[in-house]
Automatic annotation (TrEMBL):
InterPro entries given in the database record: Carboh/pur_kinase_PfkB_CS, PfkB_dom, Ribokinase-like
Lineage of source species: Bacteria, Thermotogati, Deinococcota, Deinococci, Deinococcales
Taxonomy, superkingdom: Bacteria
Classification via Gene3D superfamilies: 3.40.1190.20
Keyword list, A-Z: Kinase, Transferase
Protein name: Sugar/nucleoside kinase (Ribokinase family)
Carbohydrate kinase PfkB domain: residues covered: 2-69
Record's keyword annotation contains Transferase: yes
Organism of this sequence: Deinococcus budaensis
KW Transferase (keyword) present: yes
Recorded GO MF terms: kinase activity
One Pfam family it belongs to: PfkB
Length: 81
């Protein structure tokens, strides 16, 4: 579940929750923030990462989308994240 500026939380199949805190940024335009988080999360899932890593990746990428109106402002290389 996306929590906006508070990050995101996910439930484990075995019980319990994983929570990832989003870094603080100056918001310029929130359009696409959720889509960006979803895309980053799913990318990490497809790369075989665990739940915590996937959630953290999503909440690290999404703030970069809201801190600029430039939709090309996201890191061009994943290793820079």
């Amino acid at each position: 579940m996306k929590l906006g500026a508070d990050g995101a939380v996910a439930a484990r199949q075995t019980g319990g929750l994983e929570w990832a805190r989003a870094p603080r940024v100056t918001m310029v335009d929130t359009v696409g923030a959720g889509d960006t988080l979803n895309a980053a999360y799913l990318h990490a899932v497809l790369e075989g990462h665990d739940l915590r890593s996937c959630l953290n990746f999503g909440v690290q990428i999404a703030p970069q989308a809201v801190s600029s109106t430039d939709r090309h402002a996201l890191p061009p290389f994943l290793k820079s994240v």
